[in-house]
Amino acid sequence: MARVIMIQGTMSGAGKSLLTAGLLRIFREDGYRAAPFKSQNMALNSYVTSDGLEMGRAQAVQAEAAGIEPSVYMNPILLKPTNDVGSQVIVNGEVIGNMKARDYFAYKKELIPEVLRAFEMLDKMYDIIVVEGAGSPAEINLKENDIVNMGLAKLLHAPVILAGDIDRGGVFAQLYGTVELLEEEERQLIKGLIINKFRGDKSILDPGIEMLEEKTHKRVIGTIPYMDVDIEEEDSLSERLEGQRGAKEIDIAVVRFPRISNYTDLAPLEHLNGVSVRYIGRAEELGNPALIILPGSKNTIRDLKWMRESGIETAVKKAVSRGTFLFGICGGFQMLGMEITDEIGCESAEHEQEEETALKTMRGMELLPISTAFSAEKSRTRVLDCFPKLFGPYEGLSGKPFEGYEIHMGQSVLLEDEEEVVSMWKNRETGTLLGVCKEQIMGTYVHGVFDREETAGALLGELARARGIAVETLGVQDFKKYKEEQYTKLAAQMRRHLDMKAIYEMLEQGEAYEGTIGAGTSGRN
Questions:
Q1: How many domains does the chain have?
Q2: Model confidence at 354, in pLDDT bands (50, 70, 90)?
Q3: Candidates 157, 217, 330, 437; catalytic one
Q4: What mean pLDDT do residues 345-358 have?
Q5: Which of 63, 452, 457, 500 measures 20 to 30 Å from 275, CA to CA?
C-alpha cells in the first residue's frame, strides 16, 4: 500500500504542479517509486498515453519527473474548456461528451467510483503517491460534492500541505483565510504550510511567518524561493505566453489563439541557441519573423474566425508571400486547408447547438489542398515516424525522425495531389493524413514534432539559410537531457528550502501526524 501526501493551493497558479513534480523527483532520488495523482484537471494541454488514452499533460510531466511511464490513472478526469461555460469531459482517457459547467457540477459526484478505482490502481503499483488539488479548497460555493480538494483528502485520508503564492501578494491573507474558511475536520487535515515563489531577504519575512503560525496553529514547513527552473506550466497561467522572450537571430512568432492548446509543442524551439519564440495576439505584433507557427486549438473554427477578424490571417498571408515559413500543428494544420466543417457540433456547446448559433462550416486559409471534417470519434495515437523526401524550404527535414502523438476530433483529406505537394500519411490506403507540405507551408497532426534534437536542428538550419545566417553561429541541444537537468535542479532547490524530515513524517504517520502547534509557539526550524 502506498503512502500518500497531498499538495493543495490557496488559488490557481500557487505552484501546486511544480511542487508536486519537485517532490516526485526527490522521492525518486531517494529510491522510492512515486507517482502523481490529480483526480480532476481542467486544462487544454493534454497528452496521449502509450495505450492511446488522454490525460492532462501536467501529470505526464510529473510522471516524467518521477521517472515513470504516464498513465491515465494519474488523471482520471480531464476537463477541456470549449467555451466560457462548458467543457469536453474526458473520463479514464475517453471522451464522454460536452457539458455545461452547471451540468457537470451536478454530475461529478457520480465519478467518485472512477476516481477511487484509478487511485487504487496506483496504490498497488507505487510506494508513494503525491496528490495534487485544483484551484482552492476554500471556494465555498463549490465545496459541495468536492472530488479534488478536501473532499478527496477525506476519501484518501491524506495529510495536506497548503501552498500560497507570495509573488502575487497577500500570501498571509491567502493562507490564513483559506484555513479559516475550512470546516474543523478539514483544518485538521492540513499538516503544514508553504510560502511559495518568495523573492528577497527571508529574515524580513520571519515575523509574518511567526504570526501566521500563531493564528493558524500550522507550521510553515518551507519558504520556497522563486525558482529558476524551466518546466512546463499549466495552460493559461503560463508566462511563456506573455510578450517577447528576447530578440535573437531567428525570430519565431506563434499565434496565441483564445483557445490555444498544447503550446508545449513549442518548448524545444525555445531552447535552440540564437532563437526567440514569442506569442502574438494582434496583427501589428507579427513583424517579420523567420517562422510563423499556428499551434493547437480546442475550438478550431472559432479560433480561425478570431484570427480572420483580428487581421492576423491577412498579416500571416502577407508574410508568407514574402518568404516567411509557416507551420501548423493539429488545429493550426486544419486552419491551413480549404474548408473546415463541423456538422454534428463537436466544437459547439449544447446550448449553441440548440439555438443554432454553432459555426458548422468555415472557409480555411486556403494555403494547403486539404479539407477537414469533424466527427464524434477522437483520434488518440502515439506516433513514431520520419519525414518523407521534401523539396524546397523544408528539404533539410527529409528523413529526420519525429515522435509524438495525435489528439484531434477532425479528419483531413487531400483534395489534390499536386506536384509541389508532399503528403505525410498515417495510412495511405485509407487516405488518413499525418501532414502536408507545400513550398514553405507545412502542417501536421503530430504534437511533439520538434522534440527530437536532429529534427529541431534541421529546421533551424533551413531557417538560418533562408535568412542568410551562418548555421555555425546557432545550435541545438538534447531536449530530453535538458528536461532531466531541470527536474534535478528543481529537486535540489526544494530540498534546500523545504523541511523534508516533516514531509517523510507526514508520509509515515498520515492523518495521525501532528501538524498543529500551540498558539504563540513557532514551529519553524
A1: 2
A2: very low
A3: 330
A4: 56
A5: 63
Q: Which of 346, 408, 437, 447 is catalytic?
A: 447
- Asked if 39 and 76 count as a contact pair (C-beta separation under 8 A), the reply is yes
Q: What confidence score (pLDDT) does residue 525 get? A: 39
Same domain (yes/no): 469, 489: no
Residue 429 vs residues 390, 407, 425: alpha-carbon distances, Å: 21, 21, 9
Name the residue range of residue 210's domain.
3-38+61-71+111-231+485-512
The end-to-end CA distance of the chain, in Å, is 31
Query: Active-site residue 346, yes or no?
Result: no
Whether 191 has a pLDDT exceeding 70, the answer reads: yes
* CA 290 to chain centroid: 26
Question: Residue 237's pLDDT is what?
Answer: 47
Q: Which of 32-41, 110-119, 412-421 has the lowest mean pLDDT?
A: 412-421
Do both 387 and 461 map to the same domain?
yes
In this prediction, residues 217-225 reach a mean pLDDT of: 95
Give a yes or no: residue 237 inside a domain.
no
347 and 222 inside one domain: no
Residue 412 lies in a domain: yes
Is residue 157 part of the annotated active site? The answer reads no
Based on the fold, state whether residues 22 and 123 are members of the same structural domain: yes
Q: Give yes or no: residues 422 and 307 share one domain.
A: yes
Rounded to two decimals, what is the model's pTM? 0.87
Question: Can you say whether the dihedral through the CA atoms of 412, 415, 417, 419 is positive or negative?
Answer: negative
Closest by CA position to 322, among listed 467, 423, 460: 467
pLDDT of 286-300, one tens digit each? 999 999 999 999 899
